[in-house]
């Protein structure tokens, strides 16, 4: 057994060697810990040899490239996640995406892609979330992409049929009858009387407020669901957050000196897109900003433009 000393700057660290092969390991760990205790993190990182300890020091120092190199070797999910969060907080978004993918942090990726307005990334994430059984993340991705039919299908496949019916009522009224039929069949296994009490709008249109208007609005907006404005334009759409599409449609009818149509009336007018900005302005003037219950489309609220091309339709 022999003793030895190591001088580092003004500090001297003493240690005892029981086996010559322990010299490098024992001295490096001891010196690195000593330097960290003195606030000399950069020097401690240079001396440290343990990967986990070096990773912690690199994270503290914000040395992301060093931390990434260690994470690549370790292939630790926790290290990738920690590094991804740090990269995101420091604005290194490309590195953040790579780290979050390695960590399989789907919630983190959803936050990143939605903040960037990256529709392609959200689409890939939706597929990945389905494969991993993360239905909540998959649903949010599909909803933001305006893939409402796939949202309904996901809810049905997840046996969340009542939620699918409520979503159809709000966003896809044309699918309500289809979902109600599925709901009846499922509920009939438990309570036949309750299943028979479910109302189908095709059978009882008078029980659904503004039903024909809702169908008209859905039809007019279906072609706009694949349009994804960039995230940088958020402020130009934020002011429309409280607009109700149903109220906007009714306001346009009143502006044309037409009597609002009751449920079950035939010959109601359908709304069609024509890109006329003046008509969009007219809608905004007639809608009360305090309107509650706004209908979401594409994860954004009422960002579409409106036209007034009339077509006659019949009641269900």
Automatic annotation (TrEMBL):
Biased composition (Polar residues): 307-316
Domain of life from the UniProt record: Eukaryota
Amino acid composition bias (Acidic residues), ranges on this chain: 272-289
Keywords assigned by UniProt, alphabetized: Cytoplasm, Cytoplasmic vesicle, ER-Golgi transport, Golgi apparatus, Membrane, Protein transport, Repeat, Transport, WD repeat
Region (Disordered): 257-316
Family matches, as Gene3D superfamilies: 1.25.40.470
UniProt cross-references to InterPro entries, sorted A to Z: TPR_COPA_B
Pfam families on file: TPR_COPA_B
Gene Ontology cellular component annotations, sorted alphabetically: COPI-coated vesicle membrane; Golgi membrane
GO biological process terms, semicolon-separated: protein transport; vesicle-mediated transport
Subcellular location per the Swiss-Prot or TrEMBL entry: Cytoplasmic vesicle, COPI-coated vesicle membrane; Golgi apparatus membrane
Ranges for domain COPA/B TPR: 29-184
Keyword Repeat appears in the UniProt entry: yes
Record membrane topology: Peripheral membrane protein
Family according to the record: Belongs to the WD repeat COPB2 family.
Protein name per its UniProtKB record: Coatomer subunit beta'-1-like protein isoform X1
Organism phylogeny: Eukaryota, Viridiplantae, Streptophyta, Embryophyta, Tracheophyta
């Amino acid at each position: 057994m022999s003793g030895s000393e190591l001088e580092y700057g003004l500090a001297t660290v003493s240690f005892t060697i029981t086996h010559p092969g322990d010299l490098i390991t024992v001295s490096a760990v001891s010196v690195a810990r000593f330097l960290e205790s003195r606030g000399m993190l950069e020097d401690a990182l240079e001396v440290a040899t343990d990967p986990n300890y070096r990773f912690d020091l690199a994270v503290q120092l914000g040395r992301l490239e060093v931390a990434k190199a260690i994470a690549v070797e370790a292939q630790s999910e926790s290290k990738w996640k920690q590094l991804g969060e740090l990269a995101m907080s420091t604005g290194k978004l490309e590195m953040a995406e790579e780290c979050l993918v390695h960590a399989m942090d789907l919630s983190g990726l959803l936050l990143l892609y939605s903040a960037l307005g990256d529709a392609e990334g959200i689409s890939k994430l939706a597929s990945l979330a389905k494969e991993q059984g993360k239905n909540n993340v998959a649903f949010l991705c599909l909803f933001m992409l305006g893939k409402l039919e796939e949202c309904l299908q996901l809810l049905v496949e997840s046996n969340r049929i009542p939620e699918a019916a409520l979503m159809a009522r709000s966003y896809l009224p044309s699918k309500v009858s289809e979902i109600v039929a599925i709901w009846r069949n499922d509920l009939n296994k438990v309570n036949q009387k309750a299943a028979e009490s479910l109302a189908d709008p095709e059978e009882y249109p008078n029980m659904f407020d503004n039903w024909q208007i809702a169908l008209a609005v859905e039809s007019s907006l279906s072609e706009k669901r694949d349009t994804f404005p960039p995230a940088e334009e958020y402020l130009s759409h934020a002011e429309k957050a409280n607009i109700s599409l149903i109220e906007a449609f009714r306001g346009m009818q009143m502006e044309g000196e037409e009597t609002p149509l009751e449920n079950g009336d035939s010959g109601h007018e359908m709304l069609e897109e024509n890109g006329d900005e003046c008509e969009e302005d007219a809608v905004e003037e007639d809608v009360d900003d305090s309107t509650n219950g706004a209908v979401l489309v594409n994860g954004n609220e009422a960002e579409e433009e409106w036209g007034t091309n009339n077509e006659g339709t019949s009641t269900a």
